[in-house]
Design goal:
- This protein is an alpha+beta fold.
- It folds into 3 domains: 43-95 and 264-353 and 611-619 and 629-645, D-Maltodextrin-Binding Protein, domain 2, CATH 3.40.190; 96-263, Dipeptide-binding Protein, domain 1 (Alpha-Beta Complex); 360-605, Dipeptide-binding Protein, Domain 3 (Dipeptide-binding Protein, domain 3, Roll).
- It is built from 24 helices and 26 strands.
- Helix 23 runs antiparallel to helix 24.
Length: 646
């Protein structure tokens, strides 16, 4: 069949042409001998490892890179924030999926799967895996591993009470069927034209991170008699479910990066776990399934290290001192740019463009499902959110905090994207404290002696904002300014600083009044990652977790008001659309409904950012897209990089 992929005006290739191009590229390696890193030679000679040709699949994925074939060896040094930054590991070494985006983010192509077919009505998707794929411990990766995920994890209510929405259509979860050892079918109850894009966008990792041969020992179905012995003396697990979850994590939470025994399909495997020291270390996966155009097994670089630092300022100092080979998160912002620019010579690095263009750099997220009944009533009053939006002087924030780099905006697609809507982007962004006061006088007219408004219960109405200093986006500084603007119209905001790990815990538990974060959905991921446009899924954006649970499963969570149901229904039509044209039209309708709800309050539309790379590191792509679960520097990943100084 011929199926177009949405999300970019350039993504117009059919499945047939995609497969033809990929198979032709892959065949380049067949007629020649494979190469491996010299660091593996002794292990092969001793018999500890099979020869490289026996470790690779019959048809390896062939990568064509920007600077050509690289050379083996070396250690890639980068950095990670000490608390709650496990996603930095995901971004650099964990983006191997059944299908993937091309590096320019214009096409979805086969990856772990070497062939994909889709039915004309976009209800059925069939994947043929590469023959001979292996986990990092050398055991085969087959359809049985995918079926283990589906039958024993995804469909197990104890392990997965909330189904990930990307595998649910019309309230019905996907049906996954084994065709043979290399072929698997995903079938949905109705059309799902967005499925391959969703699968390529990050959450698609779920079917391919559960090695059955290893994890079945922790599953009641396979080892009921042995579980008690495994639990004995275990301080973190009280039953088989918590034991299983301590060995792997569906969203790459710290448990995934703590278990050094967990086999993976990624280019590197950890040797030092995430939480146990002042650095994280990883070594090459000898069974990695990709090669370059001359048949050399990737990755080129043998080892990776992440220095765990608790302050972005320390990251900056390490970079300018030449102690890091690349860095991007937490320091790639306008605040640090001048210092980093001046430090290029001493640090032996240069700037690389990064297309980091989410829907908003700083978004106020009021908890619309907050337990407090007074706050719940006020937060769910759209006019309150509009008033608070008008109370904020966005341009002052941009000028003072972002050094003029940005534009006042709500959460909305970027101007360069086909989904951009100026009205959606600019609504309620005018700094107008007079209008804000007028609107608030109708909602909470009474004030206390200090001029702060009283809620319907007669008590001062206070919003406790949780703030973590992450991404180098100066959230504490922004919130200090927002706090003053809010006070000017009688709203009491109290700032509660925390680290990302604690904030993660709070939003998963629905414990926060409000917090500030960045919002995805600025470019092509707007189609697939709508968590800032509606309460969508259990991810790292929460402003109505109970409604999100209801959307995944109407028997759980909390039934939302009709206006929210309308937004969900509109997005269901986006997911169902088969053609690009229909999907674009449906997405515009959905975004209009989302904008009318004003679920969140955006502050600044971001400008492009940058990455810092050592001058000796090659095969780094300029203009890498990054947002949400399109994990930068994925989809190129670090297996491309090589050090010419080796």
């Amino acid at each position: 069949m011929s199926l177009h992929f949405a999300g970019s005006r350039l993504a117009k290739l059919t499945l047939a042409s995609l497969f033809g191009a990929l198979m032709a590229t892959s065949s380049l390696a067949w007629a020649q001998e494979y190469g491996q890193s010299p660091i593996l030679d002794a292990r092969v000679e001793s018999g500890e490892l099979p020869p490289v040709e026996d470790r690779l699949p019959a048809n390896p994925y062939v990568e064509t890179m920007v600077d050509g074939v690289g050379q083996y060896g070396g250690t890639l040094r980068t950095t990670i924030l000490a608390n709650g930054d496990h996603y930095n590991l995901t971004r650099t070494i964990a983006n191997e999926l059944l299908v993937r985006w091309t590096p320019d983010w214009t096409e979805v192509v086969p990856s772990l799967a070497e062939e994909v077919t889709a039915s004309d009505d976009a209800t059925t998707f069939t994947f043929k895996l590469r023959e001979g794929l292996k986990w990092s411990d050398g055991q085969p990766f087959t359809v049985d591993d995918i079926m283990f995920w589906y039958e024993d994890i995804f469909m197990n209510e104890a392990l997965t009470p909330d189904k990930n929405p990307i595998f649910v259509v019309g309230g019905e979860p996907v049906v996954v069927t084994k065709v043979d050892g290399q072929t698997v079918e995903f079938k949905f109850a109705s059309s799902y034209g967005l499925f391959l894009q969703q699968l390529a966008y990050g959450q698609g990792h779920l079917p391919v991170i559960y090695p059955k041969h290893y994890l079945s020992q922790f599953h009641e179905k396979y080892n009921a008699e042995g579980i008690p012995a495994l639990l004995q003396g275990n301080a973190t697990a009280s039953d088989w479910v918590s034991l299983f979850n301590s060995k792997v994590s569906v969203t790459f939470q710290p448990a995934y990066w703590q278990n050094l025994e967990l086999p993976t399909l990624n280019p590197y495997v950890l040797t030092v776990p995430y939480a146990d020291s002042d650095r994280v270390e990883a070594v090459r996966n000898p069974y990695y399934w990709k090669v370059d155009t001359e048949g050399n097994q990737l990755p080129y670089i043998d080892n990776m290290t992440w220095a765990k630092l608790d302050d972005p300022q320390l990251m900056l100092l390490r970079m300018t001192a030449g102690e890091l080979d690349f860095a991007f998160r937490h320091i790639n912002n306008s605040t640090f740019k001048s210092v980093l620019f001046d430090g290029q010579e001493t640090g032996n690095y240069h700037f690389v463009d990064v297309k980091d263009l989410p829907a908003n750099d700083a978004t106020l997220l009021l908890n619309l499902n907050v337990e407090d009944p007074v706050k719940n009533e006020i937060f769910n009053n759209k006019n309150f959110r509009i008033a608070l939006s008008h109370a904020i002087n966005r341009q002052d924030i941009i000028d003072l905090v972002y050094v003029g780099q940005g534009a006042p905006s709500q959460v909305a697609p970027q101007p360069e994207h086909e989904l951009y809507n100026e009205e959606m982007s600019t609504q309620y962004t005018e700094y107008n404290p007079e209008l804000a006061n007028q609107m608030l006088d109708e909602i909470m007219p009474e004030k206390d002696a200090q001029g702060f408004r009283l809620g319907p219960d007669g008590n001062r109405f206070t919003i406790n904002f949780m703030v973590a200093d992450v991404f180098g986006l100066s959230y504490p500084d922004i919130m200090s300014m927002v706090q003053q603007y809010a006070a000017d119209v009688g709203i009491d905001i109290q700032i509660r600083t925390t680290d990302r790990a604690r904030l993660n815990t709070m939003w998963y538990a629905n414990e926060q009044d409000a917090y500030i974060w960045n919002c995805v959905g600025g470019l092509s991921e707007a189609y697939t990652d709508v968590r800032c446009y509606i309460p969508f899924q259990k991810a790292d954006i929460f402003f109505a977790s109970k409604w999100s649970e209801w959307y995944s499963d109407p028997t759980t969570g909390e039934e939302p008001p009709q206006s929210v149901k309308n937004a969900y229904a509109a997005y269901d039509l986006v997911k169902a659309a088969v053609t690009d044209e229909d999907r674009l039209a449906r997405m515009k309708e959905f975004l209009a409904i989302s904008a009318d709800n004003l679920f969140t309050i955006g502050i600044s539309r971001p400008m492009p950012k940058y990455m810092l790379v050592n001058n000796d590191i090659k095969n780094v792509v300029q203009g890498i897209p990054i947002t949400g679960n399109l994990w930068h520097p994925a989809p190129t990943l670090t297996q491309w990089y090589f050090d010419r100084a080796q």
